[in-house]
Design goal:
Layout lengths: L1 H8 L1 H4 L19 E15 L5 E12 L2 E2 L1 E2 L9 E7 L6 H20 L5 H20 L7 E2 L6 H18 L3 E9 L5 E8 L1 E10 L2 H4 L11 E5 L7 E6 L9 E4 L2 E8 L10 E5 L5 E8 L3 E2 L4 E6 L17 E7 L14 E6 L1 E4 L5 E5 L6 E4 L4 E2 L2 E2 L1 E2 L1 E9 L4 E10 L6 E2 L2 E8 L2 E4 L4 E8 L26
Parallel strand pairs: 9-15, 17-31
Antiparallel strand pairs: 1-2, 1-5, 1-6, 2-3, 4-8, 5-7, 7-8, 9-12, 10-11, 10-13, 13-14, 16-25, 17-21, 18-19, 18-26, 19-22, 20-21, 23-24, 26-29, 27-28, 27-31, 29-30
Helix pairs in contact: 3-4, 3-5
Length: 477
């Protein structure tokens, strides 16, 4: 009883000692009064001073405001049931002090929720103890190690809780929004504190807008793309950087639970950079995933082949010959190669033929290109945005069937303005040039074939015998 009375009497001295209570301030209290009371006993408390001495031992009750949990915020003052006025804790405590207390309480809640065998009374008592411990440090009460009797809660449990609370506070300041209220009136002041998780996670998942082009083509990669995460839509305040892996995924980064803005900083190999600024809503305690796609670099500048007569260098066939119907085999390889290391099997193959087309001046040309109009056989064409295109890689083309009346042997390709005659297979590459894909070399060639010429052979015979031998002394020479 003496120990308990000692706690009650200390209340008269607390107001005279500045360091033993929260600083006072002028508070304009509302007319609302809140009923505060101490309910059932929750356990025995030992007020251990920093020098190791125990200044008092007392029974602690379950304190409430209007039936909701509250905590003693002045260990040196006795509690009295009664009505009290409410003020925001920020009028009496710094943000750092509020966070210390609120986060300590939050840790104990999480600990007791995840550990069986701790009664609700002892869970409350542990919360009250960490409140006193944090306030003792802040207000220099010199009882930083206030504890419950080990008969109530084992020492190992208390040691684990108190150490865990300190670590939790250190690790989580800024991750939670913290606040509280202080209830003042006759006797001991009470406090209510809350810590609300204010962060979530964001990550990104990238794909190709045209998997038909990029799948199986090692020149394209969705790994290594970088994205900035910003707090403002103008993207001036960067919070984090996301980098994609080989699957197009990024690790999650922690941000405030609000709307963040994400834009691509660097595109991965083979893709155009996405200039869109995306907004993403992040909820506390959850992971928000932004799904984005990049467009592969391709070229829609395709090679055109014009069939001409080798002798005349014009698109007019000689005699009964024709420049229509010449066939060309095109092979595409998903990679960069030369004539010496081409894979045995191309990625795609097409066969096209020359057809007659009339230009704006009425002149006839015999043309072929990679389009359905000219296609004889082969795989489907690569397409993007409704156009036939070529991905990054290697392309070869060779005349494999001459038109009627012309020889395949000796045929050659020649670009306009060039003297080089390309015989047999022609090889070119589609490479990156900034944000574009470009075709190396020209995209227009004339293909010259040699016309087949006939001859006359005369055999002299005897009219009567029909033989090639002359009669008598005559001669057929």
């Amino acid at each position: 009883m003496k120990k308990i009375l000692k706690r009650l009497c200390t209340g008269f001295l607390a107001f005279a000692t500045v360091v033993t209570a929260l600083p006072s301030s002028t508070v304009h209290a509302s007319n609302t009064q809140y009923w505060t009371e101490s309910k059932e006993r929750v356990g025995i408390v030992e007020q251990v001073m920093n020098d190791g001495s125990i200044s008092s031992t007392f029974n602690e009750g379950h304190l409430t405001v209007e039936g909701e949990d509250a905590y003693c915020i002045d260990i040196n003052t006795a509690f009295k049931n009664g009505y009290k006025t409410k003020a925001d804790a920020s009028t009496r405590m710094s943000a750092d002090q509020i966070a210390d207390v609120a986060l300590s309480i939050e840790y104990v809640k999480q600990y007791t929720d995840s550990h069986s065998g701790i009664s609700s009374k002892h869970a409350y008592l542990l919360r009250q103890l960490v409140v006193w411990q944090r306030l003792s440090v802040q207000l220099d009460w010199q009882c930083d190690n206030v504890r419950a009797s080990y008969d109530e809660i084992p020492k190992a449990v208390q040691d684990e809780v108190f150490a865990g609370a300190k670590a939790f506070v250190k690790e989580n300041k800024g991750r939670y929004d913290c606040g509280g209220y202080i209830y003042s009136g006759e006797g001991q002041e009470l406090g209510q504190f809350w810590a609300k998780l204010a962060v979530g996670n964001t990550k990104l998942q990238k794909t190709s807008t045209n998997a038909n082009i990029t799948d199986g083509n090692g020149i394209y990669s969705i790994a290594g793309a970088t994205y900035g995460v910003y707090s403002d839509k103008d993207c001036t305040k960067q919070l984090a950087t996301l980098t994609t892996d080989t699957s197009g995924n990024t690790e999650a980064v922690e941000v405030r639970a609000t709307t963040v803005y994400i834009k691509e900083l660097s595109a991965p190999a083979g893709f155009k950079i996405d200039k869109t600024v995306y907004s993403l809503s992040v909820e506390a305690g959850k992971t928000a995933t932004l799904k984005v796609s990049d467009t592969p670099k391709v070229t829609d500048t395709l090679i055109e082949l014009f069939k001409i007569d080798m002798e005349t260098q014009k698109s007019n066939p000689q005699g009964n010959a024709s420049l229509e119907g010449a066939e060309f085999t095109w092979n595409f390889y998903a990679g960069y190669y030369n004539k010496n290391n081409l894979p045995a099997q191309p990625t795609r193959t097409w066969v096209t033929k020359t057809i007659a087309e009339k230009d704006s001046d009425g002149a006839i040309h015999y043309i072929t290109r990679l389009a359905d109009k000219y296609k004889v056989s082969g795989d489907s064409f690569y397409t993007q945005d409704g156009k036939n295109v070529l991905p990054l890689g290697t392309l070869t083309v060779e005349e494999t069937k001459s038109p009627s009346g012309y020889l395949l042997a000796g045929a050659y390709m020649q670009a306009d303005g060039s003297e080089e005659q390309i015989k047999g297979m022609y090889l070119t590459q589609i490479t990156e040039d900034g944000d574009l894909a470009v075709l190396s070399g020209s995209n227009q060639y004339h293909v010259s074939d040699k016309v087949i010429r006939g001859g006359v052979k005369i055999q002299k015979r005897d009219l009567e015998t029909k033989d090639t031998k002359a009669q008598g002394g005559a001669t057929l020479k």
